[in-house]
Amino acid sequence: MNCFARRDLSHAYSVGRDATVAGSGVRAISGKIVWGGDALTLRDDDIASSDIRVAIQTDDEATIHMYYNLIGYVGPGGVSRIVDGTGDDSLGSEEEPFEAPHVTSPTFQCAHPSYDWMNRVQAIGFGRAQLVRSKFRRLTADVYALT
């Protein structure tokens, strides 16, 4: 699953080659992020961490709640550049956004019978946060179910 969010563009979808979750035969998720919120912590050691919660409305009208923490390195001096966010010292530009790698471990809750298997999944995700002028622009992650 690849998730990213912007006010005008928020989707959750399978970017894999298969339309099913490998090894399980269940359908991969395809839908839209309809709600979300996060709390960001910027640490002195240039690490950003966040607690994120989103609701995904699937194409077949199920609602899946996804919860995850994420942690990532924002580069040398990255935290102070994010906080200050001004002038030539800001992090990333339109032409060359800064890409900060991150690792996450989402869990899910869903009452819909087609997706109740997700209630038993621990997942792991690897992705990138994109920053332009020290503002988070886009967050993408490839998420895998641990079996």
Question: What would your notes on this structure say?
Answer:
With 147 residues, the chain is mostly beta strands. Helix content is 5%, strand content 50%. The chain is built from 1 helix and 9 strands, in the order βββββαββββ. Strand 1 and strand 2 form a beta hairpin. The N terminus is likely disordered.
Could you provide a short overview of the structure?
It contains one helix and nine strands; from the N terminus they run βββββαββββ. The protein is mainly beta and 147 residues long. The longest helix has 7 residues, at 78-84.
Give me the secondary-structure topology.
Blueprint: E1 2-4, E2 11-13, E3 31-42, E4 47-58, E5 63-73, H1 78-84, E6 98-104, E7 107-109, E8 122-132, E9 135-146
| Average pLDDT over all residues | 77
Could you tell me the CATH topology label.
Porin
Per CATH, the class reads Mainly Beta
Question: What is the helix/strand order?
Answer: EEEEEHEEEE
The CATH architecture is Beta Barrel
N-to-C terminal Cα separation, in Å?
A: 16 Å
Q: How many beta strands in the DSSP annotation?
A: 9
The low-confidence parts are 1-11, 13-19
Helix content: under 10%
Largest sheet: 9 strands, antiparallel
What's the number of structural domains?
1
What is the radius of gyration?
Answer: 16 Å
